[in-house]
Amino acid sequence: MKKNMLPPGLVNNLQEVLSKKGGNKNDGEKPKDDSTVTSTSSAAPDEYDSSKPVILVTNGEGVDSLGLVYLVQALLGLGLYNVHVCAPQLDKSFSAHSVTFGETITVASAEIDGAVAYEVSGTPVDCVSLALSGALFSWSKPLLVISGINRGSSCGHRMYLSGVVAGAREALISGVPSLSLSLNWKREESQENDFKDAVAVSLPLIKAAIRDIEKGVFPKSCFLNIEIPTSPLANKGFKLTKQSMWRPTLCWQAVSANRHPGAAHLMSNQQSLGLQLAQLGRDASAAGAARRGTTQSKNEEVVSVGAAKSDTRVKKYFRLEFVDKEMETTDEDLDFKALNNGFIAVTPLSVSLQLESDIQTAASSWISGVVSDGSEQ
């Protein structure tokens, strides 16, 4: 078990003071309650107010996900920022820190009212890398990158698989402050409105981060992974946590070929294409032979095209499923433990494991300043 690197007394006091800052159900700010999530974009692709900072939003689940859309609506509702979106076209929640190399990706405008938004046929890392490259947007660098809000926890070893965490990590690698946010979604308990509540309870920390980035006092060596409990409005406040060793069981299930429509479709297409090519070859050979026969050319060899070879390799099909498992621990400062206990878990993460103690110290100092300001207000 790793030694707790937090300053003495911070862990005990953090929940109480941060809850006054706005991390509980009484103080949370909610975005406007619009019944329509998306509509035709009213912003021109290259137009933005240069007097306002740029916030770049991405995620792992795709540009149409409720967590992203409600977050964008809330940020726009503040009227303080240019909100630009660059997110995957499809669900890439478990793409980890992968990039699309050697292939052309497609970027299309997306419809999120009030925001300049693009959907990308790539991963979250592709989205952030492209957005920060200067090739897509007219600005050179955003003030902050926010990745989320993801459907499902990214605690423990899931961080290594998580596309939403990878989006924030890529921003840090590129020198841009970032946050990743996830809602501990439970299939039998959670509802779509929980995303609005998740946005509401996380806004105080987001605004504090933006404020201190502008002041130059936000930690530069890490990004923050924010885990929101299943019932956001019932949270017990923010809690600074450490990454745990928790991981789900990776369960591979064998899938029968006749129950795998994709495989059957692919095989039928291949067989159909082979038959078509074979028939075209026979037709071409017959036509050529007929022409040669009419001209009575001698010593000419008729070449026929044989049928395409069938694939005789043995193929098997498998599907990966995650099975959550319990992890016994007495360390209340671990991410999944705090999350399960109802706290909003805030875990500082870096790309360098050697800086762990420095990261904890920097994050602790920053959050201590945030909560001190909150207690004085």
From TrEMBL:
Residues 16-48 are annotated as: Disordered. Keywords: Hydrolase, Metal-binding. Pfam families: SurE. Residues 55-247 form the Survival protein SurE-like phosphatase/nucleotidase domain. Residues 24-35 have a biased composition (Basic and acidic residues). Belongs to the SurE nucleotidase family. This is Survival protein SurE-like phosphatase/nucleotidase domain-containing protein. It comes from Hibiscus sabdariffa.
